[in-house]
Design brief:
The chain is an alpha+beta fold. The chain contains ten helices and 14 strands. The chain is elongated and about 90 Å long. This is POP1 protein.
């Protein structure tokens, strides 16, 4: 009996003593991660990359630059025989909504058929394939090149209104967005992004109280007594101030331009088994008619 009591007592004492890493662990990891994204936005796969890559801060994001281990042969083997996935979510997405004729008319001013495909390509216009081209300043071809972009149309649904997504590199985003707003005359903001900063505000601190009781873990509760669940905050993207407008509309043509950066994730699959991975991962949804 004494030995059993001694063993239980020792077990309780051991559970109280934690290692230095556990003692220094932040009480609310999500709040701490939000605070650390004050200057550089993290991708959805940041935690995975941060454990395996040397991270660099570029274009307002924190990106994986080079692996910490010798994984070049493994990546090459995956590209040639299996499947390799890359996170391209740091690319910026511009969404254009409006009448198809108006969109094609103005977009023809910033591209040329002499360089290859345009936004009017039949296979791309139907929404089946993704296209790529080089953009120029309005009516300035072959001078004043802005940069390469990729685009995809939303498939037709019988309406004359269409949706177009243009993916641009974050280093080219401001110039291309400025040119798109100029050709469509989108000056008035449609929606203004009013979001909280990544740092914890004074109001949040007042709402959440740290309850300390002997022998129990620390828990955060709001003023109503319910447990406060930390929420990950997506503060736009690394190329836009969180308090700036992210959507503009033209009063003359009705075309709307929206900045969908970090709202639509983008991944690239390379390798002969890419289609097999997608087939096993994605399942078709059942269509329900009312």
């Amino acid at each position: 009996k004494k030995q059993a009591e001694k063993a239980v007592h020792q077990k309780k004492e051991q559970s109280k003593t934690k290692c230095r890493k556990a003692r220094r662990r932040h009480i609310n990891l999500v709040a701490e991660f939000n605070r650390r994204q004050r200057k550089s936005i993290w991708l959805e796969t940041h935690i995975w990359h941060a454990k395996r890559f040397h991270m660099v801060k570029k274009w307002g994001y924190c990106l994986g630059n080079s692996p910490t281990e010798k994984s070049y042969r493994a990546c090459y083997r995956a590209m040639t025989k299996q499947c390799l996935l890359q996170d391209l979510s740091y690319y910026c997405c511009m969404e254009l909504t409006g009448k198809e004729n108006e969109l094609l008319k103005q977009l023809a001013r910033i591209c040329s058929i002499d360089t290859g495909l345009t936004f009017q390509e039949a296979s791309c216009l139907s929404g089946r394939f993704e296209g790529s081209l080089n953009l120029y300043r309005a009516d300035r071809y072959p001078e004043d090149m802005l940069g390469p972009v990729t685009f995809i149309w939303k498939p037709r649904d019988g309406s004359e209104h269409r949706q177009l997504w243009i993916w641009v590199h974050p280093a080219l985003k401001q110039d291309i967005l400025k040119e798109l707003k100029a050709i469509f005359q989108c000056s008035e903001p449609k929606e203004i992004c009013i979001m909280e900063p990544v740092t914890t505000s004074i109001q949040e601190i007042k709402q959440m109280e740290v309850v300390m009781s002997p022998g129990k873990k620390r828990k955060k509760e709001d003023k109503e007594g319910e447990k406060a669940v930390p929420v990950k905050k997506i503060i736009g993207d690394g190329t836009r101030d969180p308090f700036q407008s992210y959507s503009w509309i033209s009063q003359t043509s009705g075309v709307a331009i929206s900045d969908r950066s970090m709202e639509i994730l983008r991944y690239r699959l390379i390798g002969p088994l890419s289609h097999s991975v997608l087939t096993e991962t994605l399942k078709a949804a059942s269509v329900q008619t009312v």
